[in-house]
Amino acid sequence: MERITAHLAAAATAGLALLAAGCSGNATTTGTNTSPASAISRALPRPFTITARYSAASLGLNHPDAMAVGPDGNLYVTDLSQRVTVISPAGKVLRRWGKPGSGPGEFRFIPGDPAAPTDVQGQIAVGTDGKVYVSDSGNARVQVFTPQGRFVRQFGSFGSGKGQFQRPYHLAVDATGDVYVADDQAGTLSKFSPAGRVLWHLGGASSSDPDLTGHFKFTGFDAHGRLVVVNDDRNRVLYIDASGHKVDAFSASTSGSPTGHVCGATVDAAGNTYVSGCGTNAGPTLVYDRAHRLIAKWPGTTYALLSSPSFGPHGEVFALATDGTMLKLHISLPRA
User: What is residue 278's predicted lDDT score, i.e. its pLDDT?
Assistant: First the structure.
């Protein structure tokens, strides 16, 4: 484990609202940043420091794709090897499961872009009960496992009908065990019961809301139980309630992002939203407060984040870098 000390820039204190901005009742807002480009040009504080780092090679990972933190504090990672690796917060590999195939406990993570064959789509999420959910993109299903890797069940199949997928990708599990799954091919977002029954479905070409037309990326929820979603076609961050209503949204800046898109967003315990770029050329990670004001920036130079940070049950913060390094972070935002 290698310790890295970062010197923080002087931080201007940003006041935080007591409640999430724009969220009274079910009213939908479409907040935007008044001047994203000029805001980024100012000297913004870095949102975190690196306290430890573990290379992909030291963890036996082959082009890791996604990471989730379980209620046990362990990290669950998918990679090009078509398997799940469980890693302790101290960087020790605890176990692995999975292999290429289409049977129970087997995976076929496929690339979203054939020109980038190592950039596979194999997202992962862990419920509050410890069950592990894996988006098996090439087999058009979601598989569910115990924390030890025992296969429990699966749902979904190839198709465009109710409960079917063309290419499942991002997913998240709420506190009640309901599962949210984005279909990257169809451009839809569906909510499933713990048993795999469709509860609601939104998005797709027939949607009348531009924010709900595109490709959705997400990994978790804010303190209000709202799913925090990025529409990377529009570079919008959306907050979707448990009933499938968009209750808030804002436009994220793409300044400094080589791809010109944002593809990930997570929220910390204070309500700050961390927005990251896309893929191996992700660029900086930007932090917005609950009023959607830009308050910090991770430069994305030495380590650009493959996805926005993941937050553990006891204040732990982890992220995957675009080179496959697993980073342990300490949030260092100014306090209100």
Answer: 84
Which one, of 252, 224, 223, lies nearest residue 236 by Cα?
252
Tell me how many degrees the CA angle 36-207-278 measures, rounded to the nearest 5.
40
Residue numbers in the chain where pLDDT is lower than 70: 1-42, 335-336
Domain 61-206 class, CATH top level? mainly beta
Is residue 252 a contact partner of residue 262, using CB atoms and an 8 Å limit? yes
User: Angle at Cα 234 formed by Cα 230 and Cα 237, nearest 5°?
Assistant: 30
The CA-based dihedral angle spanning residues 278, 139, 147, 316, taken in that order and rounded to the nearest 10 degrees: 10
Cα 301 to Cα 62: distance, rounded to the nearest angstrom:
22
- What's the Cα-to-Cα distance from 332 to each of 13, 67, 189, rounded to whole Å? 12, 22, 33
Task: Give the per-residue pLDDT at 204.
Answer: 85
**How many Cβ atoms sit within 10 Å of the Cβ of residue 90?**
10
Burial category of 175 from C-beta neighbours within 10 Å (exposed 0-12, middle 13-18, buried 19 and up): exposed
Structure-block tokens of residue 294: 């830009």
* Lookup result for tokens 């995976």: 107
Residues for the chain: how many in total? 336
Q: Check residue 336 and give its pLDDT.
A: 55
Among 228, 294, 243, 284, CA closest to 260: 284
- pLDDT number for residue 42: 62
Instruction: Give 5-73 as a DSSP string.
Output: --PPPP----PPPSS-TT-STT----B--S-HHHHHHS-PPPSEEEEEEE-TTTTT-SS--EEEE-TTS
Say what the pLDDT of residue 205 is: 78
**pLDDT reported for residue 335:** 64
What does the domain layout of the chain look like in residue ranges? 31-60+216-336, 61-206
Q: Are 234 and 211 in contact (CB under 8 A)?
A: yes
Write out the two tokens for 70: 């379980």
CA dihedral (36, 37, 41, 42) in degrees, to 10, reads -30
